[in-house]
Design goal:
There is one protein chain. The protein is of the alpha/beta class and 210 residues long. The chain has a single domain, classed as Rossmann fold, CATH 3.40.50. A five-stranded parallel sheet has the order 2-3-1-4-5, with helices on both faces. Helix 1 crosses helix 10, helix 3 packs antiparallel against helix 5 and helix 7 crosses helix 8. Bound molecules: adenosine-5'-diphosphate.
Length: 210
């Protein structure tokens, strides 16, 4: 098993690249999806959130109301930190368990961890390789505005709240340039993927020292 960490800017094209990788036969684990799973009603993180933030952050059906929770933590670093303290370890644990399961069931497979905050969370350390999807700042603003219906200022604010994309590029093993067409990007991904398959080295367990 080889673990590739996939990251980038807020609308640089991670989902686009991860769908290309899925087509090539990789198993993709999406951090946003995991973040949703760990707060499903009854899960430990869900219980902790209700205990700390109250039932006012729930929808009538018991699921988490993300908008309300967002307004509770917005602009309050302590509350945001508290929320992260509840959710982050559960997300990490989920990833670790999934990797162990896949290692057992499909030892030859390439696993892609699609994680927007890969470096910030330290998850880059469990990856054999880190790939960063890059686009220039202007294109990132435009694509983010178009995708999420934001004003230019709103888009800029979200981009600037993250680690600069250039810094991620410096830390990357591979950089995918997504400024061209989707077809261009799929071609790059295909080339890099096949180069990378030839270099399967560490297993996840070896990397963890287990
Ligand atoms: P991320 O997952 O990094 O947030 P997405 O893959 O969702 O980014 O891409 C952001 C937006 O840009 C989406 O609306 C997507 O359809 C569009 N997009 C991505 N890659 C390209 C490309 N090469 N050409 C044109 N539009 C693109």
């Amino acid at each position: 098993m080889k673990v590739i960490g996939l990251t980038g800017g807020i609308a640089s094209g991670k989902s686009t690249v991860s769908s290309a990788l899925q087509d090539l036969g990789a198993v993709v684990i999406d951090a946003d999806e995991v973040a949703r799973l760990v707060v499903e009603p009854g899960q430990p993180a869900w219980r902790d959130i209700v205990a700390v933030f109250g039932e006012a952050v729930l929808n009538p059906d018991g699921t988490l109301n993300r908008e309300v929770l967002g307004t509770r933590v917005f602009g309050c670093p302590e509350r945001l930190q508290e929320l992260n303290r509840i959710t982050h370890p559960r997300v990490t644990k989920y990833f670790q368990e999934e990797l162990r399961r896949i290692e057992k069931e499909q030892p030859e497979v390439i696993v892609v961890l699609d994680v927007p905050l890969l470096f910030e969370s330290g998850m880059d350390k469990v990856c054999d390789e880190v790939w960063v999807v890059w686009i220039d700042r202007e294109l990132e603003i435009t694509r983010l505005q178009e995708r999420d219906g934001l004003s230019r200022d709103e888009a800029l604010q979200r981009i600037e709240a993250q680690m600069p994309l250039e810094e991620k590029v410096q830390k990357a093993d591979r950089v995918i340039d997504n400024t061209g067409t989707v077809e261009d990007t799929f071609r790059q991904v295909g080339t890099i993927f096949h180069e990378s398959i030839g270099k399967v080295t560490n297993t996840y367990e070896q990397k963890k020292g287990g």
